[in-house]
């Protein structure tokens, strides 16, 4: 007899029939009630064991974490909090979990402790919920783009170009570091490396995605990207997943429309599909917040925040307007900001972004038309000659979640900009070709997937929303 | 006025209305007929220009590859091969493409030439078709798993473990190779590297996926994997995308059922969604085959092959049966094989796999129960003590497309096997934990995504089915 997933058993469709469930014991109460979970849902199915029917030495093997196969009749449950349960007829223990050794006991573990046990933490309610939400969000990403005529584009991970400019890169090499080949001049001879030159891990697939947008029209990447930056914060990972749509003929307004519509869609989809997990995470966050001083508490619950994003327009504000607001705001005047805003042109810090989103506008904000000097070489110059068609989307509690722009499609302007920024034309000959042959306006953005998962789950440390986080000094498992 | 994608215009829904299209010129005939393509479909829309309406110097800018915006009335077409066309009223040239310089002219280019222009080759019919099929196959992968209760799992790309054993690995480092830090003993001090130890690019996410399957039940990876092997063949890439489902409580038969059902689903879905692209690729392959000697031609067209896979059962054959067939077959007896099969236990070579699939069974074949000695340490030992519960799926023209197994879930047997194969327990302490706590039978497989795209498109060189291929001595763009 085939077993049925617990998520399907709990619908109660097979009431009074014999069913089989397989999963792991969450708790075993009174030598009678097994709460069994198989990961298909956050909810357990209660399996009721008649003590007299089973040998004591079999029941002794049933501890939290043990793997079981359970066969019995699905009946209406008398207990509170569940609708159906299994009256067990047959019981098989696949694998035990010695309670003296098994780290995941039915009690509250700290997130730090669980991070050290990243290979087991997904067996807890909280990480099970996070990872199911993560999976659903991923699918929503593909669904949105595929249903809107985008093509999935796999940007290369290993890149010979180091001109992407989005951050420090990791080197990829096959050379024997203990015996590096040398040129006659005594330099390392990278011609003998696997790819015949120096290579790095990509920091962004955007430039390559642009070459595809200029042929397929609308494309998106969704893949891992890397930053070799020594940032030990709760918002940075050395390895993270990024989503980068790129659309031919889109200007910056179209780009903002796309980003807003996309984010609303994936959150709405997840609200519909992950109700039980989100209710659990909502309650967890409320419990966490109770321990915080009133002033630090978020005014909204997780579910309220998610619904708010789906139902309200993002506020669109130019960089220049934002600087005016910041210059005149209380924390700036009272010198409560670490970085005081006293003029136009400075890059905004996280404290400023949070002020705008959390205190001033109290909703997601799209900032646009940034000073050219603080933005990347490929962003389109405005008529004013000092701002570029860039946009950042700022989210409450998260900060920057999206960075995008209309791209500089004018060959001469782009070459000029690259010269000014010291980027070699020969490095990016292929990128320049897209402006030389059939160039057209186009726009795109990058969204750090883990920041989206942070927002959707109400978690606060980015290490808790990716299965095996990579950060400075840490690449376990 | 917003523009409409050409794929939507061609449905003819807006007949007699004013429409706008944006795209790139494929051809411009008689100073009158522009074939415009925007990548949304392989089909162009014909735009008819009235010479007298437009200045000659504007029309002079229209060459193959130029980017245009075209506004006009959508009317029924008089010409052959198209149902609707645009009678142009307004015409804007975004970007020209100097025919003296633009490499992608309307003539047959060799695949080698296009590989050197990988940033532009997607502007041809053939690569547009391949990449749309690739995107559709990707989506079908997610759709299949998500609709069948699997959770998407992102395996780490940078790994501190080198025990995966699937092949040579690339090193990832942040050290200054010109000034390597040394320990007192004079060794390279990897404690000063970014992660505080040596790290590599993953060759497989399987071991980590197993830890998630033992909590969430059914999971799958779909991400890049790497092999630093100097294989300059038409079937190997240094960077490729792999799909790795892993399912708790599945035995090897369930695993074979899953793999077969999955492959049939994604091919069926692609047949439905990519009809125009597949018809084009089918015709291309037929033209290619005409240049081959009769004996080397495939008996079936591309569409026939794809339908054959969807409609027929894969043949399941044990390794032992396969060796019997091979030992007694003509090419073995006549010593036509490079590697003669004379006994049980040898690893099968590509020539043997092709014989079984293409000559003997003439359909996809699943081989199972391989000799333990030629397979990985984590595969479950059979009762016979000499074979393991492994399976490979072999496809006509492609060879091995899937490799999988039921995993060794017995702690003691696994530790014994690791010892025998020289794999350190301390390296894989976390993997062993899954067998120590709540172990259960489970199975999974790996499918090289590019091999699937090769099969679905009828292409023969794996460099042609990934946007920017990485191979020995080549990491351009």
Automatic annotation (TrEMBL), chains A, B:
Enzyme class per UniProt: ligase
Organism: Myroides pelagicus
Catalyzed chemical reaction(s): tRNA(Asn) + L-asparagine + ATP = L-asparaginyl-tRNA(Asn) + AMP + diphosphate + H(+)
Record's subunit section: Homodimer.
GO CC annotation terms, alphabetical: cytoplasm
Sequence similarity: Belongs to the class-II aminoacyl-tRNA synthetase family.
GO BP terms, alphabetized: asparaginyl-tRNA aminoacylation
SUPFAM superfamilies to which the protein is assigned, alphabetical: Class II aaRS and biotin synthetases (SSF55681), Nucleic acid-binding proteins (SSF50249)
Subcellular location as annotated: Cytoplasm
GO molecular function: asparagine-tRNA ligase activity; ATP binding; nucleic acid binding
Entry EC number(s): 6.1.1.22
Residue ranges occupied by any Aminoacyl-transfer RNA synthetases class-II family profile domain in the UniProt entry: 131-467
Name listed for the protein in its UniProt record: Asparagine--tRNA ligase
Pfam families in the cross-refs: tRNA-synt_2, tRNA_anti-codon
Alphabetical UniProt keywords: Aminoacyl-tRNA synthetase, ATP-binding, Cytoplasm, Ligase, Nucleotide-binding, Protein biosynthesis
């Amino acid at each position: 007899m085939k077993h049925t997933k617990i998520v399907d058993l709990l619908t109660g469709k097979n009431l009074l029939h014999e069913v089989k469930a397989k999963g792991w014991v969450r708790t075993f109460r009174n030598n009678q009630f097994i709460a069994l979970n198989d990961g298909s849902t956050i909810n357990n199915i209660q399996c009721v064991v008649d003590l007299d029917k089973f040998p004591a030495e079999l029941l002794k093997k049933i501890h939290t974490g043990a793997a079981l196969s359970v066969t019995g009749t699905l009946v209406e449950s008398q207990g509170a909090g569940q609708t159906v349960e299994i009256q067990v007829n047959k019981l098989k223990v696949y694998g035990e979990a010695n309670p003296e050794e098994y780290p995941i006991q039915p009690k509250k573990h700290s997130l730090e402790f669980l991070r050290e046990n990243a290979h087991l933490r997904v067996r807890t309610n909280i990480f099970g919920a996070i990872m199911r939400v993560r999976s659903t969000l991923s699918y929503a990403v593909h669904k949105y783009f595929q249903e809107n005529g985008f093509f999935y584009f796999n940007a290369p991970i290993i890149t010979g170009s180091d001109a992407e400019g989005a951050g420090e890169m990791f080197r990829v090499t096959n050379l024997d570091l203990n015996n590096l080949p040398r040129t006659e001049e005594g330099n390392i001879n990278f011609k003998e490396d696997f790819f015949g030159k120096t290579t790095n891990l990509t920091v962004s697939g955007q430039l390559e995605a642009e070459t595809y947008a200029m042929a397929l029209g609308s494309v998106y990447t969704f893949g891992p990207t890397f930053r070799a930056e020594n940032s030990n914060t709760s918002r940075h990972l050395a390895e993270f997943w990024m989503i980068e749509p790129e659309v031919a003929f889109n200007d910056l307004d179209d780009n903002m429309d796309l980003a807003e519509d996309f984010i609303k869609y994936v959150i709405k989809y997840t609200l519909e599909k992950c109700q039980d997990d989100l209710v659990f995470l909502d309650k967890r966050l409320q419990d966490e917040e109770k321990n915080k001083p009133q002033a630090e508490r978020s005014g909204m619950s997780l579910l309220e925040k998610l619904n708010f994003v789906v139902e309200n327009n993002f506020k669109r504000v130019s960089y220049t307007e934002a600087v005016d607001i910041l210059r005149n705001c209380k924390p700036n005047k009272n010198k409560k900001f670490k970085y005081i805003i006293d003029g136009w042109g400075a890059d905004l810090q996280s404290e400023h972004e949070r002020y705008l989103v959390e205190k001033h506008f109290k909703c997601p904000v799209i900032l646009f038309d940034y000073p050219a000097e603080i933005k990347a070489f490929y962003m389109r110059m405005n008529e004013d000659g000092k701002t570029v068609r860039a946009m950042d989307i700022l989210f409450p509690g998260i900060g920057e979640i999206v960075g995008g722009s209309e791209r500089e499609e004018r060959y001469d302007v782009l070459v000029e900009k690259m010269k000014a920024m010291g980027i070699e034309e020969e490095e990016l000959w292929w990128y320049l070709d897209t402006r030389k042959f059939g160039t057209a306006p186009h726009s795109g953005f990058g969204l750090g997937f883990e920041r989206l998962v942070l927002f959707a789950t109400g978690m606060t440390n980015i290490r808790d929303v990716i299965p095996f986080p990579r950060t400075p000094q840490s690449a376990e498992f």
